[in-house]
C-alpha cells in the first residue's frame, strides 16, 4: 500500500519533504507574527519561544529532509538552548544593539523559563513531524 495516495513511493522524495518543511517554516513565522499581533505578555513571549524551536525544527528538516523526527526535534532544541545560554555572555547583547534582526534571532537576555518553552516547542514539533513522517522514512534514513 503506498504511503502517499496515488503514488507507489514507499518513502517520500526529499524534494517533497523540503517543500513541506519550507511551508511549515512559513506557517510558523506567520503564527509567530500573528501571536505577537493579538497577544501580549507571557502568552506572546513564551508562545514565541516555542514557535522559535518549531521554526528551527522545520529548518533542520529543510536542510536534512530524511532526518528522523527525534533527531530534528533534538537538534532544534539544542540550538534553541545554545542560543539561550549564549545570552549569558555579552556577545548577544552587543550584537542585538547593532541589529534588530540579530535581536530577533539571538535575543539579548538569558531567561531560565525560556528553556522550558523551547522544550515545549521541540515536543510539539516532534509530534507533528512524527504524525506526518511516512512510516518507514525513519528506517530509510539509516
What would you say about this model in short?
By secondary structure, the protein is mainly α. It is built from 7 helices and no strands. The protein has helices at residues 14-38, 41-63, 69-86, 91-98, 100-106, 112-132, 137-140.
Description:
- The longest helix has 25 residues, at 14-38.
- The two termini are 22 Å apart.
- The protein is 75% helix and 0% strand.
- It has helices spanning 14-38, 41-63, 69-86, 91-98, 100-106, 112-132, 137-140.
- The chain contains 7 helices and no strands.
- It is an all-alpha fold and 142 residues long.
**Overall form:** globular
How many angstroms does the end-to-end distance come to?
22 Å
How many separate helices?
7
Q: Structural class per helix/strand content?
A: mainly alpha
Q: Give the rounded overall mean pLDDT.
A: 88
Estimate what percentage of residues fall within beta strands: under 5%
Oligomer: single chain
Q: Let me know the number of strands.
A: 0
Q: What's the Cα radius of gyration? A: 17 Å
- Helix-strand pattern, N to C? HHHHHHH
The level of helicity is over 70%
Query: What's the main sheet like?
Result: none
Uncertain residue ranges: 138-142
Q: What order do the helices and strands come in, and which of them pair?
A:
Elements (H helix, E strand, L loop, with lengths): L13 H25 L2 H23 L5 H18 L4 H8 L1 H7 L5 H21 L4 H4 L2
Helix pairs in contact: 1-2, 2-3, 2-6, 3-6, 4-5
Amino acid at each position: 500500500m503506498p504511503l502517499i495516495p496515488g503514488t507507489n513511493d514507499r518513502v517520500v522524495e526529499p524534494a517533497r519533504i523540503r517543500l513541506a518543511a519550507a511551508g511549515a517554516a512559513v506557517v510558523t513565522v506567520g503564527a509567530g507574527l500573528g501571536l505577537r499581533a493579538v497577544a501580549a505578555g507571557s502568552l506572546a513571549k513564551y508562545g514565541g519561544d516555542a514557535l522559535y524551536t518549531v521554526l528551527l525544527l522545520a529548518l533542520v528538516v529543510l536542510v536534512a529532509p530524511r532526518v528522523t523526527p527525534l533527531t530534528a526535534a533534538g537538534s532544534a532544541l539544542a540550538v534553541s538552548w545554545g542560543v539561550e545560554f549564549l545570552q549569558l555572555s555579552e556577545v548577544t547583547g552587543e550584537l542585538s544593539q547593532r541589529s534588530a534582526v540579530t535581536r530577533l534571532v539571538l535575543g539579548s537576555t538569558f531567561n531560565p523559563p525560556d528553556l522550558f518553552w523551547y522544550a515545549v516547542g521541540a515536543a510539539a514539533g516532534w509530534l507533528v513531524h512524527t504524525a506526518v513522517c511516512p512510516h518507514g522514512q525513519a528506517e530509510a534514513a539509516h
